[in-house]
Specification:
By secondary structure, the protein is α/β, with parallel strands linked by helices. The chain has 2 domains: 161 residues, NAD(P)-binding Rossmann-like Domain (Rossmann fold, 3-Layer(aba) Sandwich); 181 residues, Dihydrodipicolinate Reductase, domain 2, CATH 3.30.360. It contains 12 helices and 14 strands. A 6-stranded parallel beta sheet has the order 3-2-1-4-5-6, with helices on both faces. Strand 8 and strand 9 form a beta hairpin. Helix 1 packs across helix 12 and helix 7 packs across helix 12. Bound molecules: NADP nicotinamide-adenine-dinucleotide phosphate (NAP). NADP nicotinamide-adenine-dinucleotide phosphate binds next to helix 1 and helix 12.
Length: 355
């Protein structure tokens, strides 16, 4: 198969770096374009980027010239797909203009995630929502389109919620998070604020978790998403961990499981039929891994499961207050919660012949 050419916007940031790293040996995609802000434009990528992820910068990209994040410049490259890792303040205008002009945009930025004709995809959970692409194109008259990656915490949370919802029915969900520093971007939280500390507030995060979850877990009826009839309430906190969001989750179930072992089986055997048989290269063989040790999952030990694409669930317990179960889920925020899911979405678009 001839590889499709792709670009990364905001390629010097933390999500951009993950994208560059994941695209380096990708069997379907060939990275041809990297963009960033004015301060990086014209420099070699290897000199402009402050590389912070564990795998070395792929040497073939070191000399690539960083281009401006400018629609005309991006169009000159004629790329098939653009991955956007731009700040939310500038993402919408650029992404919309690109889609209008025929480019397929897979975006990590939060604006437009809740627009009713924008697919918000966590492929194992709701790959069928990709159908909204056609709704979007006919409504907006664009030749390209925009697909959004969910908020990082939400991408991690909706994976275990989906099989629980299908098997038992879910009512209320209460989630309290411990979110890593990389979630705030490369220049994220100043060390003076976070060392020896926990910050019990993340701007806009709780609203995203509470609302995006209901869209992602919703059903597509007559080309519209009917939001899942669940109530999600979240409390989000920044902790001094580099990567990996840990979430403490309490779930009300409509039908009680016969045992906790059964819950564990339902989660660990979750093999979505949403992307079955598509052989998407970045899909983990097990999207949910269940650990039985009393002190797992832990960010440092478990975040790279499934190359960072699996979430790890542990401490599954019955809960008589919410009438259901409680557990911990951990996921890699810049992989499963951003770049990895973006690449998986792009693979889905290719498999569905939308690119
Ligand atoms: N970090 C996460 O875990 C995570 C998870 C999910 C979603 N997201 C979303 O993904 C996006 C990127 O996040 P991030 O954490 O990677 O942020 P980041 O580390 O701050 O990176 C931002 C990137 O955007 C570029 N940029 C900044 N201002 C620009 C401008 N005016 N014009 C063009 N490019 C500009 C930066 O280039 P320079 O280096 O040249 O400044 C850099 O490449 C955000 O929308 C964020 O909300 C992040």
């Amino acid at each position: 198969m001839t590889k499709l050419s792709v670009g990364v916007l905001g390629a010097t940031g933390i999500v951009g770096q993950r994208l560059v790293s994941m695209l380096a040996d990708h069997p379907w995609f060939n990275l041809q374009l990297v963009t960033a802000s004015e301060k990086s434009v014209g420099k070699k990528y290897g000199e402009a980027v402050n590389w912070v992820i564990e795998k070395p910068l792929p040497s073939k990209y070191y000399d690539m010239v960083v281009e401006p994040t400018n629609v005309d410049k991006i169009l000159e490259y004629g790329v098939d797909i653009v991955f956007s890792a731009l700040p939310s303040s500038i993402a919408p205008s650029i992404e919309v203009e690109l889609a209008r002009k025929g480019v397929v945009v897979v975006s990590n930025a939060s604006p437009m995630r809740m627009d009713e004709d924008i697919p918000l995809l966590n492929p194992e959970v709701n790959a069928d929502h990709v159908e909204l692409v056609e709704v979007q194109r006919s409504k907006r008259g664009w030749s390209g389109f925009i697909v959004k990656v969910p908020n990082c915490t939400t991408a991690i949370l909706t994976l275990p919620l989906k099989p629980l919802m299908d098997e038992y029915g879910v009512g209320k969900v209460i989630v309290s998070t411990m979110q890593s520093l990389s979630g705030a971007g490369l220049r994220g939280v100043p060390s003076m604020l976070i060392l020896d500390n926990i910050i019990p507030f993340i701007e806009g995060e709780e609203w995203k978790v509470e609302n995006e979850s209901r869209k992602i877990l919703g059903r597509l009826i007559n080309h519209r998403v009917k939001y899942a009839d669940i109530g999600v309430t979240a409390s989000c906190h920044r902790v001094m961990v580099l990567e990996g969001h840990l979430e403490s989750v309490f779930v009300e179930l409509h039908r009680m499981p016969s045992s906790l072992k059964e819950v564990s089986r339902v989660l660990s055997t979750f093999k979505t039929n949403k992307i079955k048989n598509l052989n998407l290269p970045s899909a983990p063989s097990k999207p949910i891994i269940v650990r039985t040790e009393k002190d797992r999952p832990q960010p440092r030990l478990d975040r790279m499961e499934g190359n960072g694409m699996s979430v790890v669930v542990g401490r599954i317990r019955a809960d008589n207050v919410v009438n259901g179960v409680k557990f911990i889920v951990l996921g890699h925020n810049t992989i499963r919660g951003a770049a990895g899911t973006a690449v998986l979405i792009a693979e889905l678009l290719v498999a569905k012949k939308l690119v």
